[in-house]
Amino acid sequence: MLQKIKGLIRELGFLNTILHLTNYFFLRFKIPFRVFKYYFVAQRLYEKSLLPDRRGRNIGISDIPSKVKPHPCPRPNAVIIDRYQQGAVCLGAYKEHEFAGCFWYITDKYKEDEVNCLYKLANIDSAWDFDVYVVPKFRMSPVFLKLWDDASKHLIEQGIHWSLSRISAFNARSISSHLRMGAQLVGWACFICTGSFQLTIASIFPFLHISFNKSSYPVFILMPPKN
């Protein structure tokens, strides 16, 4: 156990490890508290593909409309409906007609479905991407890069050159993957939740927020780095 904790500290840092273990403790003993911490990152979009031309040719990317039932993205139906009602777009990846993954994005604002907060984009040349999902059997294949390349081209055609997103501070693999692709940190937020109560501490405005019901939530105005 001690070696596992040391490994987590190496991957996540001391504070994130403490938060992660606290959340695990709450879940393990069914204590009605949850801890979430997100990093907000910005990724520059480029027309040049990350995937070599010879790879991913048998993977097709197409828009998944809201009328598709059942939706192939493995999320609760209420969450799927809410995403489309907010104006989100879902791009699906299909390998020889088999669903392999999807990429969600929105170009204005997005109400988070895991905690109670709202993300707003300050720049018209930015999009918010979230829930890039790849079916487990395809996670060692080119599906992720194919999704990213096609989504990037699709967004650039709309005049969008930055994609912002949030990643869990407890997911070392996702953090590493984003950094390898050139993502830049633009802020972070930590949420402590129980029932309808939520305490938010963040590195960006509003910095500190306390809510006692679902109608009260922090609004984060996000923008890409200036450099």
TrEMBL record:
Lineage: superkingdom: Bacteria
Residue stretches spanning the membrane: 185-208
Keywords annotated in UniProt: Membrane, Transmembrane, Transmembrane helix
UniProt-listed InterPro entries: Acyl_CoA_acyltransferase
Name of this chain's protein: Uncharacterized protein
